[in-house]
Design brief:
alpha/beta, four-stranded antiparallel beta sheet, 22% strand, ABC_transporter-like_ATP-bd, transport, nucleotide-binding, ATP binding, ATP hydrolysis activity
Length: 283
């Protein structure tokens, strides 16, 4: 979640207290979640379109790849996860708190625990801010303690960028640099879970492999879990212990990465595997 992330809901006094300064157990749950739309109002005879249906998912201690073709429901799932859309049926909880969340203190803590790297890094960066301001914004908005300048420089170094970029604005960054700044913006608050939306989609093979190596290194160094949302099964194989396959809004396959890759059950999974070159696993 970026600093603009919105979670809206009441928190019951019985709900667990979470502390982003300590090791918080990772728990992300989707329970029978569905998202339904009507092309025209129902009372005019509109037909229901099910963008997602019957999604049951529990993310705990393993990195997860959510894969599928365009239109499979991946973007809808991200919108649900970050409170940008509400399910028509079912419920979602993050770290023991049901979405939406209205308690501002809990909201800020949850925002620190799970962060998003958007698909289009350049358009997600404030064009009027320098890199330093971009990285400082979530630290300030989420009330992160410590020396912010040191945190910014350390995070920028972790993504392989020099401190000399801190004074630049996004229009002076290459696509690769902008993507790493977007990753740094998510990492600067030290999340427990990083959600990366189609991170390899616009990269050539060389830069794609560099990004996979970077994400794998960051995952290990920062002891965080990755939720990779992608159509790139090779990236999923390289970075994640589990794979969930979406097709036409439904979960059609979910299991350990080696098993899904070697013994795919569903035609959608088989088609994805056959259509793409795969990466050597670095898990």
């Amino acid at each position: 979640m970026s600093s603009t992330y919105s979670l809206n809901s009441e928190v019951s006094p019985s709900m667990p207290v979470i502390d982003s300064e300590t090791q918080t157990p990772i728990e992300i749950k989707f329970e029978n979640v569905g998202v339904h739309y009507y092309s025209i109002p129902r009372w005019l005879g509109g037909q229901v379109f099910k963008a997602l249906q019957n999604v049951d998912l529990n993310v705990e201690d393993k990195s997860l790849a959510i894969v599928g073709r365009s239109g499979a429901g991946k973007s809808t799932l991200i919108e649900l996860l970050f409170g940008l859309k509400s399910p028509t049926v079912g419920g979602i909880s993050l770290f023991g708190h049901s979405l939406p969340i209205r308690n501002s203190k809990v909201q800020a803590t949850v925002c620190r625990l799970i962060q998003l790297v958007p698909q289009e890094p350049h358009t997600s960066l404030n064009p009027y801010y320098t890199v330093r301001q971009i990285l400082a914004e979530p630290l300030s908005n989420l009330d992160v303690s410590g020396n912010h300048e040191s945190i910014i420089e350390e995070t920028l170094s972790d993504v392989g960028l020099p401190a000399s970029l801190l004074s630049l604005k996004p229009n002076h960054l290459s696509t690769g640099q902008a993507q790493r700044v977007a990753i740094a913006r998510a990492l600067v608050v030290r999340p427990a879970v990083l959600v990366a939306d189609e991170p390899t989609s616009s990269l050539d093979p060389v830069n794609r492999q560099r990004l996979l190596d970077l994400l794998n290194s960051l995952k290990k160094k920062r002891d965080m879990r990755l939720i990779l949302v992608t159509h790139d099964l090779g990236a999923a194989q390289a970075l994640c212990e589990e794979i969930l396959v979406l097709d036409h809004g439904q979960m059609v396959e979910h299991g350990p990465t080696p098993q899904v890759m070697s013994e795919p059950d569903h035609p959608a999974t088989q088609m994805l595997i056959e259509s793409q070159p795969l990466s050597k696993s670095t898990c």
